[in-house]
Please model this.
Amino acid sequence: MAKLRRNHDKASGGGLLSKSVVFAGILGLLTYLFSTFNLGETSEPIVDEKDKKIEIEFDGDGYVLPTDFFPTSTTGQIIKHTYYAMSYNEEHEQPEWVAYELTKESIRIKNVPRSGDFRPDPKVRKASAVKNDYRGSGYDRGHLVPAGDMAFNEKAMSETFYLSNMSPQIRNFNSGVWRQLEESVRDWAWDNKHIYVISGPVLTRGILDKIGPNKVSVPEEYYKVILDYTQPSLKGIAFLMPNEIGTLPMMDYALSIDEVEEITGIDFFPQIDVEEQAKLESKYDVRSWRVDGNKERARIEKAKQLKNN
Model:
């Protein structure tokens, strides 16, 4: 809500009666505002209608939740946490997708400390993976919703450490090209005000291994889908990355959203009009998504050294 600005101009004439009328008017306005907007408590943020092309919902912190904008679920188990949702796959003990909206407003808030409180997810029907599944496996507990995307408050941060949000990743993939992609997504949210992010393992092909007592699947590939659904520049892009040390430029992993849908069997944006889906999902333009060249060169050089050792 915009703040009421004080009027610093000098009033001309009017006398006591004029001042009384003005005072009464101000008092009436304040009474209306308190009754209508319930000032003093958190109120719903104002959204420009041209930006609100789909139904979105706000929580008490003013953060946008994609509750009406989920992909399709092939498992029938959609779990909603406060700031993100997922479709959980019990067979593989990880989500087939996680979905959330990332906003410029949430990124600009000072980051809270990383919580690191890895724990089972109580919302999973038959129990999620546990810490012991990863212990001694040689794989990282790779976040699908990055902690860095949810660093705007303690609850948001903590919820990314549910083990339902983890997938076994090769360490130098997790800290290499996958991390660069996560950081780039935050840049794109800043550039585009708000974007929709969907991420997950490819569970339809190429399982490398099973780890731990719960037989958590180690995927061969991961995807990330990005949609900027704000005028004037509607656009989308997707990435498909092998679970290995990545030595290629990040945009070499880019592809269309349609191609990832075909691989995963998931319709990522079923709520969008079919004709508009065709435009957004069938093509992409890497020039519309900036990449930090210095970070990329440093990442590639390190990856090549790791592969040669």
Summary: The radius of gyration is 23 Å. Residues 1-24, 29-65 have pLDDT under 50 and may be disordered.
